[in-house]
Design a protein that fits this description.
Layout lengths: L1 H15 L34 H16 L2 H6 L3 H6 L2 H5 L6 E15 L2 E14 L2 E16 L2 E4 L3
Antiparallel strand pairs: 1-2, 2-3, 3-4
Amino acid sequence: MVKLRMAYSLFAMILVLPLLAWSADNQPGRVFDNPPKEPIVVKPDIPKEYEDLVKIFDEYWGALKKGDYDKAYSLETADFRKSTGLDAYKGKYGKDVQLINVRALGVKKTSEKEVMVTGTMILKVLSGQSFQDTAKPFYDKWLKEGDTWKHVRE
């Protein structure tokens, strides 16, 4: 929960701080006095050594986005698959949330065989009778099992 709050705070700072720019005479500017002409683009900063991880990361989240739970399940760790069957795995996804996009922005090594991928996620969330787009930062743990990366379900 603390990580999630920190992620939201970081995401808010990334979005808000550029809007709080000071004018040349050190007076605070109003947010819409000088709006950006182009959308802000956040570029990934991922070392080349993790290209194989990003490929599997995209494969995993792409499978969930398409509803290919068999494929996504096969990319979970062996320990998770031993404790959770495919039917239970499929039952974890509701119809009130639709995954629109997931993007890896960074990778941090946490141990010899484990990394944390930071990124952004865009969801359509049912709010009342309509869906609303929601963007959020997130952390995603991955573990090297043999020669391939596997998603760590928490």
